[in-house]
Write a structure and sequence with these properties.
Blueprint: H1 2-5, H2 9-28, H3 40-48, H4 54-70, H5 77-104, H6 112-129, H7 132-148, H8 150-164, H9 172-178, H10 182-187, H11 195-205, H12 214-223, H13 229-250, H14 275-294, H15 296-309, E1 310-313, E2 316-319, H16 327-336, H17 348-358, H18 364-376, H19 388-396, H20 399-411, H21 416-426, H22 429-458, H23 465-482, H24 489-502
Helix pairs in contact: 2-24, 4-7, 4-13, 5-6, 5-7, 6-15, 6-18, 7-14, 11-22, 12-13, 12-19, 13-20, 14-15, 15-18, 16-17, 17-18, 20-22, 21-22, 22-23
Length: 503
């Protein structure tokens, strides 16, 4: 019956009930149609929630937002602000200020204290704070969409899609919250009544790019992809695709099988955005990002500076000029072999690996790490020109290797704070480890497929064992997507209800 009516069971039953109610009301009540009975909101919704047009419109809206916030065009005011912050504020003004202060205090250039402050703290924290303008523009535009009522329509649109793939439309609300921060997004999953839907939402909410992941996107979009807005837009929709694909695959297993919870919500009328609401939402999200730069990232910059500035030479611990000889390089190189199939090879392999692991502290740490690492690499002097980090990263990362790195860090385990939220919401150690393991495994598989198959087209990868493994994994995903799912007692009851409703 679902195939015949091209809809899911819950919607079929609901439509049958309303059709019957409408038929009774039509026979019992006669009224003249009022002129202009459709409100302005209703007329707009006929277009933006249309079955065919809804998704293309949503994709176009998100593209425009990312183009303004993180693109490389004349309208990309977020990128203009970030360029100024990197090149002028943290490239000249802040380092110059600290030079003056340190000179007045008698701290000589080239000493360990000078290096700690300028090369460690200023370079590391500045690399993260340089992306604040892009973040604020992005948060501002998203806050406008939420306040005018459009994001409520997106939840309605996504419910129609999610239900086809076994997810409840209620899952989109936590994912919407997670665009700001994954922690409240994961905590918002407690509003879902069914335990299996709630657990699946917790496992997939981390796939949505949060505010802390945006600097990673901005960094590689500028360094490798020429500030292309398509990179940032694709990152958002890769997150959505990961949620949908995971929903289809997980629903095939007994632990997640069953009908998703029904989703009912009132769509507010469109209205002009409130300046106070928009500015408050922008400030709260932006301030949360800045606070982490002043605490966690500040402390980690000091640790990274030491580990990348010192190494064991001739059996003695001493300062090193080349960070490829540092303590951190030795540690990272030992682990980097795991990520070689993802295209993380050469001198950049340990940097990409270490950046990924520091990202578990906070995703902003990834950019912080590159800010410190590439200053020491001698390939760019961030104190003279902060934009030089783009050239240094672009020289190390090919297009597919960069995209593979970006995808892995977007989809893998979230930061420690979000992991703590997963533990609290799951309230079970096995489920917590399973959720984190699934995210890391899924991220690795997707990144491997992207590099190995995409790299064949760009010339970064050659056909070999890695390509064969990528094809096998792709076939495995397709099998999980299209194989017959678990059929339990609930499925039998559902089909009986559909048949009864259709009679």
């Amino acid at each position: 019956c679902e195939k015949e009516l091209d809809d899911d069971a819950e919607s079929i039953i609901t439509n049958q009930r309303y059709s019957y109610i409408n038929s009774v009301v039509t026979k019992a009540v006669k009224k003249k149609a009022a002129k202009g009975s459709l409100s302005v909101s209703d007329k707009i919704d006929q277009i933006v929630t249309n079955r065919i047009l809804a998704l293309p419109i949503f994709a176009a809206v998100m593209f425009c937002i990312y183009a303004i916030a993180m693109g490389g065009w004349a309208i990309s005011i977020g990128t203009m602000g970030t360029d100024w912050a990197n090149d002028v504020l943290f490239g000249e003004m802040v380092p110059g200020l600290f030079d003056t202060i340190l000179g007045a205090l008698g701290v000589a250039e080239g000493g360990w204290l000078y290096g700690l402050i300028q090369d460690g703290i200023v370079a590391g924290v500045g690399a993260v704070l340089g992306f604040v303008p892009q973040m604020l523009v992005l948060f501002f535009l998203l806050a406008i969409l939420e306040d005018v009522g459009y994001m409520a329509r997106v939840a309605f649109i996504m419910d129609r899609i999610f239900r086809r793939f076994g997810l409840s439309g209620k899952s989109f609300i936590p994912m919407l919250v997670a665009t700001g921060c994954g922690v409240p997004g994961i905590m918002a999953s407690r509003t879902i009544e069914q335990d299996r839907d709630r657990k699946m939402t917790i496992m997939t909410t981390g796939f949505i790019p949060c505010g802390a992941k945006m600097p990673i996107i901005g960094l590689f979009a500028g360094a490798v992809f020429g500030d292309s807005p398509w990179v940032a837009t694709s990152a958002f929709f890769i997150g959505i695709a990961a949620v949908v694909i995971s929903g289809i695959m997980l629903k095939k297993f007994k632990a997640f099988a069953g009908e998703p919870a029904p989703f009912v919500m009132e769509l507010p009328a469109y209205h002009a955005p409130s300046a106070s609401n928009v500015l408050r939402a922008t400030w709260e999200r932006g301030w949360s990002f800045i606070k982490r730069a002043g605490t966690i990232i500040l402390l980690s910059s000091i640790v990274l500076w030491f580990l990348m500035g010192y190494g064991v030479v001739d059996g003695a611990l001493q300062a090193v000029e080349d960070n490829n000889s540092s303590l951190l390089a030795a540690i990272g190189s030992g682990v980097a072999v795991i990520f070689a199939p993802l295209g993380w090879v050469g001198d950049m392999a340990w940097k990409a690996t270490t950046a990924t692991f520091t990202g578990l502290i906070a995703k902003e740490e990834v950019v912080n790490f590159f800010g410190v690492a590439y200053h020491y690499a001698g390939e760019a002097d961030l104190m003279e020109d902060a934009s030089g980090i783009y050239a240094a990263i672009g020289a190390d990362f090919g297009a597919m290797a960069a995209y593979s790195f970006m995808i892995f860090n977007l989809l893998c385990a979230p930061c420690f704070a979000a992991m703590g939220a997963i533990k609290r919401e799951m309230n079970n150690a096995k489920w917590t480890l399973g959720a984190i393991g699934y995210m890391c495994g899924f991220a690795y598989v997707v990144s491997l497929i992207v590099f190995q198959l995409g790299g064949l087209a760009t010339g970064e990868a050659v056909f070999g064992l890695g390509t064969v493994v990528a094809l096998v994994l792709l076939a495995g995903i397709l099998y999980l997507l299209f194989r017959k799912g678990y059929q339990g007692e609930e499925s039998t009851r559902r089909l009986t209800s559909v048949a009864a409703a259709a009679q």
